[in-house]
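In the lab's daily routine, each protein ends up as an entry in a very long ledger. A line of letters takes care of the sequence, but it says nothing directly about the fold. The fold becomes a row of whole numbers, each drawn from a learned catalogue of backbone shapes. The protein below has been through that process, and both of its lines are reproduced in full:
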Amino acid sequence: MPLVKLPRAGADRRYMNSRHLAALLAATSLLAAACGSASSSPSNASQPTPTRHTQVSASHLVLQLRDIGYGYIAVPTSTGEITLAQELASDKSARSRRIDRASFRGAYKSIFANASKDGILSVAYEYATPDAATASLQDPAGLRSLISQMHGHRTASAGAPGSHPISVAGTLTEESKRVPAYTVVWQHGRTLNLVLLFGVGSTVSQSHVVTLARRQDKRVAAGGF
């Protein structure tokens, strides 16, 4: 999966200061780890560009504000498509790069925050075939990196949607403190999906990130993937 970079400027300052946005930036680097990606030099080889249809489609698969609940706001400057170039730049292994060059069709991320500085990250990736999505998800280096970066451990994926779900509980750094963090990664057809939840609010829990994941999975199912 791609490494998602969030811009520092333009966040809603009612809820997010620069340190909070930096924490979200660190959190999104976990996307790369979730499916075998980290940081490497991007390839400038011949790369297909996702079509407009793919980009628009993926934008409807991620969580929307009405899915999140009261108290959150969207961070529009940190929400948008993920390009193939970003995907390849984040690939950790040759295996991941081969899969992405052949099968990556587009991706989209959405970011939400609240006054307690809790953060929610929702991402959907589209591949050409279910087999390609499975191969990307199951790169073993990705899970090791995800667990390491979250200072976490795998947890039972009870209730998680889709195929091959991966659930990890750990912590992320926010304003020099470690705060709880939970993520679920899963496959639905030819898509890979991720929801990450972190912060100190009462709804930051394993059960709630699973609830959010199930809401996103309904969107994916409705999209015919």
Summary: The radius of gyration is 16 Å.
